[in-house]
Design brief:
Blueprint (H helix, E strand, L loop, with lengths): L2 H6 L15 H15 L1 E7 L6 E7 L2 H7 L5 H8 L2 H23 L3 H10 L25 H11 L2
Antiparallel strand pairs: 1-2
């Protein structure tokens, strides 16, 4: 495309938006900033009824990380993971957040954590595989041969 053509068109087709991060190190720095400075906190009541305590705990979420890094949604963040240079950095950040959800399960805070882990690709199902043969025993009282053959035919249908 010539300079004249570039001026003619408002957009430079085929180039897309410039990348938000040029290197994995830049993205890693922003991810670390989220975990150090970008978290929100919520108050949680803990302890037995006669000794209740209010604690502030960090709320670590994939959406919080994505927004902190400047993306508009999770899918844009996940698309960056497809690029080899950023793949490890994003997988590691996602694994760290999944670890936090797993720890919530250990603390008895299951419902929300289970939902979040399913969004990370976890599955909540079990599969049972039955292999082997089935044997069917037939007990027949005394009778005529044609009655016996008729009965065997009915059972084996």
């Amino acid at each position: 495309m010539t300079e004249k053509d570039k001026k003619k068109y408002r957009y430079n087709f085929g180039t897309g938006r410039p990348p938000k991060y040029k290197t994995a190190e830049e993205l890693q720095a922003k991810i670390e900033d989220y975990f150090e400075n970008g978290l929100t906190y919520r108050k949680v009541v803990t302890g037995p009824p006669n000794n209740r305590q209010i604690r502030e705990v960090p709320v670590i979420t994939i959406t919080g990380l994505v927004l902190h890094c400047g993306f508009c949604d999770r899918h844009s963040f996940y698309d960056l993971e497809k690029q080899e240079e950023f793949s490890h950095t994003i997988k590691r950040a996602r694994a760290f957040i999944a670890k936090e959800y797993e720890e919530l399960l250990q603390n008895g805070l299951g419902a929300g954590a289970i939902f979040a882990l399913k969004n990370f690709g976890w599955e909540n199902k079990s599969e049972v595989s039955n292999t082997g043969t089935m044997t069917k025993k037939i007990f027949i009282e005394k009778g005529e041969k044609k009655d016996l053959e008729k009965h065997i035919e009915e059972v084996t249908k």
